[in-house]
Design a protein that fits this description.
Blueprint lengths: L3 H10 L14 H13 L2 H5 L10 E3 L2 E2 L1 H20 L3 E6 L26 H16 L5 E5 L4 H10 L10 E5 L2 E3 L1 E2 L6 E3 L2 E2 L1 E3 L4 H8 L2 H8 L3 E6 L10 H9 L4 E7 L8 E7 L6 E6 L6 H5 L11 E3 L3 E4 H9 L7 E9 L10 E9 L12 E5 L2 H4 L12 H18 L3 E2 L7 E3 L7 H7 L6 E2 L3 E3 L2
Parallel strand pairs: 2-19, 3-4, 3-11, 4-5, 12-19, 20-22, 21-23
Antiparallel strand pairs: 1-13, 6-10, 7-18, 8-9, 11-16, 12-15, 12-16, 13-14, 13-15, 17-18
Helix pairs in contact: 4-9, 8-11
Bound molecules: uridine 5'-triphosphate.
Uridine 5'-triphosphate (UTP) binds next to loops.
């Protein structure tokens, strides 16, 4: 039971005393749970939020571009492949969040997406890990971060589908934390009497959650050195990526960020840039969200004429386990960022069960805030068409339809590269199961010339 006096003092110090109004009216169990939650929150932390660095100190990051990739591909791939085969690589997929824009009440991963098989996003992602595991002959650890809102449903969904064929225990679920949602004055809101309004603490919550759940320690103990990080809603994010892992190993990188050359300076993505330290001592990489920079900044150029904000981040990384371990040992915590949001909160004085829209702040941690902590951080240029098909919205851009379209185009490219004549009506869709091939290289290695031409819908399973 929380010390009531100490808690009241803390809340007063951080202007949160309103949270204690009406507490005496709550049922005992509810009151105890509520007070324990209030006592567990770091209220000092809620007051701070990250701000972007000042203009002028920003320059381009070191990125392995296509020319360097081509030159060093054989070396990276050899080293990365050896790491996979030695059991030194795990896959981490973040699948918390609320998927508000997609508008489904179930976790995003449960969304039935694939055009012919109807496979869910979870199945497509899990099958990529399975396909990789089969290829190298060992079960690659598959860490799935959920949120308190998606955890039970995600576990049940995997269990109901027999973990999509993964080995028992290969998928390891762990939940991220939550943080209070705040009003415009920074005061915590309530969902109902005796219950804070909270939101999942962002994809960056996976760092703390990896540690708290014991998964980071388990990975270290198992000899895993590299974590390939993907987000559930990018259906083309590769997990079998020897080049990425090899680059991390060869360069002893703490963090690698895959980057896309922006289509135009104003494209709405996070940017990988290098920022000089305020005291002039050295510099570090950082990702700056498009919301945090002005149009003038995104168009600014370095002394050599390169766009400072040239490289966009599609949220795919490789993290070194040693790096995460070092940060853990230092007690590092990813800071909170604030986003202005309309929130649905209960207001004291109104009947329980009613909520109204209140303008406030959602606090979140961003995984890429780990990057400035890295001693060695690199960007790796990737082919947008091959690796990026996000599912964010119900319709239009970044929707299930557009993601399917991008996947279809990739499969057409694979078939064409294998010498198949592809001549399709506009509405025809190609689907290739990750169990047949999850990458172009796998496809070309496996393709048995079973057809020489395709002129309509085509589906290829394992
Ligand atoms: P988004 O930023 O697109 O958020 O997440 P979201 O919650 O999925 O969707 P909206 O904004 O409510 O519509 C990008 C990725 O980060 C994960 C999501 O699961 C997705 O893979 N994520 C996001 C988390 O794991 N936890 C979070 O708290 C937020």
């Amino acid at each position: 039971m929380a010390d009531a006096f100490a808690l009241a003092e803390t809340l007063a110090k951080f202007d949160q005393s309103h949270l204690l109004t009406g507490v005496a009216d709550l049922a005992q169990a509810e009151r105890e749970a509520y007070l324990a939650r209030l006592a567990a929150i770091d209220w000092e932390e809620q007051r701070h939020h990250s701000t972007p660095p000042p203009m002028g100190a920003v320059g381009p990051s070191r990125v392995v571009d296509f020319a360097e990739r081509a030159r060093r591909e054989a070396e990276f791939t050899r080293v990365g492949e050896a790491a996979y085969r030695a059991g030194a690589v795990a896959v981490l997929m973040v699948a918390g969040g609320q998927g508000t824009r997609l508008g489904s009440s179930a976790p995003k991963g449960c969304f039935a997406l694939a055009p012919h098989s109807g496979k869910s996003i979870y199945q497509l992602q899990a099958e990529k890990v399975l396909s990789l595991s089969r290829r190298i002959g060992r079960a690659v650890p598959f860490l799935v971060m959920t949120s308190p809102m998606t955890d039970a449903e995600t576990r049940e969904f995997f269990a109901a589908h027999n973990d999509f064929g993964l080995a028992p225990g290969q998928a390891r679920f762990f939940s991220q934390g939550t943080v209070p949602s705040l009003d415009q004055q920074g005061r915590a809101l309530l969902a109902r009497p005796g219950k804070l309004l909270e939101n999942p603490d962002g994809h960056g919550g996976c760092f703390t959650a990896l540690v708290k759940s014991g998964n980071l320690a388990a990975l270290r103990q198992q000899g895993v050195r590299q974590i390939v990080y993907i987000q559930v809603d990018n259906i083309l994010a590769p997990v079998d990526d020897a080049l990425l892992v090899g680059l991390a190993e060869v360069e002893s990188a703490d963090a690698i960020t895959k980057v896309l050359e922006k289509a135009h300076p104003d494209e709405k993505v996070g940017h990988l840039v290098k920022v000089a330290a305020a005291d002039g001592a050295g510099s570090h990489d950082v990702i700056i969200e498009y919301t945090e920079v002005t149009p003038e900044q995104t168009r600014s150029k370095s002394a050599t004429g390169e766009l400072n904000y040239r490289w966009g981040s599609p949220a795919m990384h490789c993290w070194s386990v040693a790096f995460l371990g070092r940060l853990t040992d230092q007690g590092y915590r990813i800071p909170l960022h604030r986003t202005a949001k309309p929130l649905k909160a209960w207001s004291p004085g109104t009947p329980p069960g009613t909520v109204s829209e209140i303008k406030g702040w959602k606090n979140e941690r961003f995984i890429f805030d780990l990057i400035p902590e890295a001693k060695v951080s690199l960007g790796l240029a990737i082919d947008r068409d091959a690796e990026f098909a996000p599912v964010k919205n119900k319709d239009g851009t970044d929707s299930p339809a557009s993601a399917n379209d991008l996947a279809h185009r990739q499969y057409v490219a694979w078939l064409t590269a294998a010498g198949v004549k592809v001549d399709l009506p506009a509405n025809a869709r190609i689907e290739i199961s990750p169990l047949f091939a999850a990458t172009k290289a796998q496809f070309l290695a496996r393709w048995d010339h079973r057809i020489s031409a395709v002129s309509g819908d085509y589906y290829l399973e394992g």
